[in-house]
Amino acid sequence: MKILVTELFLSHIPQGKESFVLQKMSQFVHEYVASKFNMSAMRAGVSVREIKNNRNGLRIFKLRINKGDRILFTFDTDRVRSEYRQAILFLDYCHHDDQAMRGRMIGVSNQQVEEYLTSEESIDEFIDQQYINFDYDPNRVITRVINVETMGQLLDEREDKAVYYLNDEQFECLAPTDAPTFIFGSAGSGKTTINIHKAFILAMQPIKIAYFTYSSYLVEDAKKLFQKILEESPEYRADELLKRVHFYHLNDYISQEVSIYQTVSYEQFRTWVIERQPLLLKQLGIGIYDIWKEIRGIIKGMIPKEWIDYRVNMNEWSLASDLVEVIVKKGLGHVDGEDLVLHAEKLYEAKTRFLDQYELKAVLLMHQILDQYLLNHALIPKEIYLKLDEQYCLYSSSQRELLYELTLRYQMFLSAEGKVDENDIARQFLNRLMNQNVPLFDFVIADEIQDLTEIQIYCLIRLARNRNNLLFSGDINQTIRPTYFHTGRIESILKTSNTHLGFIKHQLVKNYRSTKEVVDLANQVVNLRIQRLGLNKKNDYHEIPIRGEQHPIYYFDAKHPLEMVKLIETGLNRHYVAIVVPDEEEKKNFERLTQQKGAVFTVEEIKGIEKEYIICYNVMTKYKTAWETIINQDVMYQNQYRYYFNLLYVALTRARHHLCFIEEDMPPSLYEQFESEFLSFDTFDETELKLNQLSTDNQFYKEAQLYERRELYEQAITEYELSQLEEAKTDIARCRALMKNKEGHHIEAGHDLMHLKEYEKAALCYRQGHDRLNYLKALVFQELPFAQIQQEFEKEGSDVLTFVYEQDVRVTWLKRFNKLYSRHLLKQAQVIDRMIETIHELKG
């Protein structure tokens, strides 16, 4: 049986009473189920009364908890979809002495309570009066979905991977379609939740579904949410559904398929540029991260489909003469000597109607040419790069020349060192796809696609057996990673790779994460962007806040350094606070100010995290020159400036409840745009700034675990240290080892992790470092089945027994290996014995 619980209800349970209330709720639900959903048949000990005369036609019932407390609920209401009609819907919790009976509910006007109510009858009468105008709209109230079996988890981690009732806008995204689907939505709009629900619905069919995301922690989050939905749906066989949905971190999946496990990270690229290209770096005058962004997103990651020549040699490609004749006759191409040159735009036009057999072959031929081009060109040609307009590249001609030269040197470095980056392995993966060496999926879902390069997105499209069976979600307003993601280009790539032009788009605008004030500020950022850069109809929208809480946005004047330091130091010692800076350079400045390393986040690092309280430090000051240009000059339609709006948007929308800005040199013209949204301070008061709640050791420890899962090892170490727990010492050592691995010191990291007995993590490091002997050692110490270890080595074309026994060096752990192998032989022998026994029985 499904149970619905509003966040309003959860937020109004008095602190310290949670377990007691949950027990009462559980008792009531079990009685309701035992009475076969007949309220009148419930035992006499359950005291339930109906609220009289609700003006919105909503039947609301009061369950007595004690003399002054009531649980308000309804059931069989047409406010929810038919599958929830029998569900109990817990609407609100009334507590007689918490001053909450003053119209706190949705749709109730404020009324003063003039006398303290003591009699139960007067309390009930008062509740009846207060809820006379109350209404419930699942599109405007956050509602959780649980069942009888999982009620015990209701108050454990209220925000952690809960299953929510989908509003009408979200539910519409789940409708079956015969075209690819794009979901674009604001921060906190439920895109991931929709994706998981889609996977759940699809898994009811015997098909193979892939769920991809760019971050390993998002994969784990997606798995947890899928498991949670299964828990809330005991009517389905969970084991069957789990087999059908495969969750992948995109780069890990591609690495497995191409058997390449070491890709160059930004940290390694940064070291290479600083140490080997200092002169070029100085000449460019561009930040290293911006250089990495240009190389990853444009020079190596873009698909230049609009600018390439779709030309094939007719003899080499063995094109039939009748096909060439029809293509030319229909104006879909022309012959140039021995080459056929296809007219891409004409073929796109042809896709809008029914394709005959020749047009279809021409379209498929165009796809083949593009695939081959992408395989043969690790970079877009220099002449194309130099001609890109400002919506793709904001650098001058001289800077582009230097950037392209740096990219060529980078490619030479990769080749010389036998290394690759993620665009390189994507191209190798595409080659395997073209040769049909990769199993396809019946349906492909991809989350956060704005974090992917175009070549990676193209690979995802190719992974779908039927390219109508695609669901992509993302938000262009959160594009701060080095991709140069553009909604129109992704749609265009899909049109290019498909045989028709149809696709479906959904735009989600309800924000379930942040308070009204935070959402209002986000909308102000949108307004300013439209005003200065012009309206982008596809991507400029205003969000609707769903959370009812209201908290002011603080602006702390940095002209008083001692007061500012008090605020920062307090924030650093609260587990529920994250301090956000715009980039690595500002992070180093902050660390010099506070003498603390790893205590703050860049906007890039905080992107996948929500916090109760966000302090933004110099997020606008850092780009003062750019903001002054945006505000004071004519930059209409110059989309390169959208990045600064996105950076500010991502930083502020990490906050659930409280948001504070500290700016040392904010452009006055920018401050004027947002001044009405701010409550200003120039002296520190932890109560006024809502920082008076202290944090426990366990709370710091739990945050540290969260950061570690998100591979934010510096921040995790800081939180582990703040916890002061003895067990945190091992966690700190593990994070330090994982930091080494991230920086490219794979073997050293593997040794450290082996010492900590973190064998699984050590194996991954050794594999990345191409240390096969230590990789095998880590697998053996994990005590994996021998057959699984053998399978891992067979992937790379070698036999594990031959590899071990022909080593020139002494294998100190050989006894341990032999023990695993002997277990394997014993199992095989037992299988053979059973087979012999079966044969004898059959003969007998």
From TrEMBL:
<dbReference type="Pfam" id="PF00580">
    <property type="entry name" value="UvrD-helicase"/>
</dbReference>
<dbReference type="GO" id="GO:0016787">
    <property type="term" value="F:hydrolase activity"/>
</dbReference>
<dbReference type="GO" id="GO:0005524">
    <property type="term" value="F:ATP binding"/>
</dbReference>
<feature type="binding site">
    <location>
        <begin position="185"/>
        <end position="192"/>
    </location>
    <ligand>
        <name>ATP</name>
    </ligand>
</feature>
<keyword id="KW-0347">Helicase</keyword>
<feature type="domain" description="UvrD-like helicase ATP-binding">
    <location>
        <begin position="164"/>
        <end position="515"/>
    </location>
</feature>
<dbReference type="GO" id="GO:0043138">
    <property type="term" value="F:3'-5' DNA helicase activity"/>
</dbReference>
<dbReference type="InterPro" id="IPR000212">
    <property type="entry name" value="DNA_helicase_UvrD/REP"/>
</dbReference>
<keyword id="KW-0067">ATP-binding</keyword>
<dbReference type="InterPro" id="IPR027417">
    <property type="entry name" value="P-loop_NTPase"/>
</dbReference>
<keyword id="KW-0547">Nucleotide-binding</keyword>
<protein>
    <submittedName>
        <fullName>UvrD-helicase domain-containing protein</fullName>
    </submittedName>
</protein>
<dbReference type="GO" id="GO:0005829">
    <property type="term" value="C:cytosol"/>
</dbReference>
<dbReference type="GO" id="GO:0003677">
    <property type="term" value="F:DNA binding"/>
</dbReference>
<dbReference type="GO" id="GO:0000725">
    <property type="term" value="P:recombinational repair"/>
</dbReference>
<dbReference type="InterPro" id="IPR014016">
    <property type="entry name" value="UvrD-like_ATP-bd"/>
</dbReference>
<keyword id="KW-0378">Hydrolase</keyword>
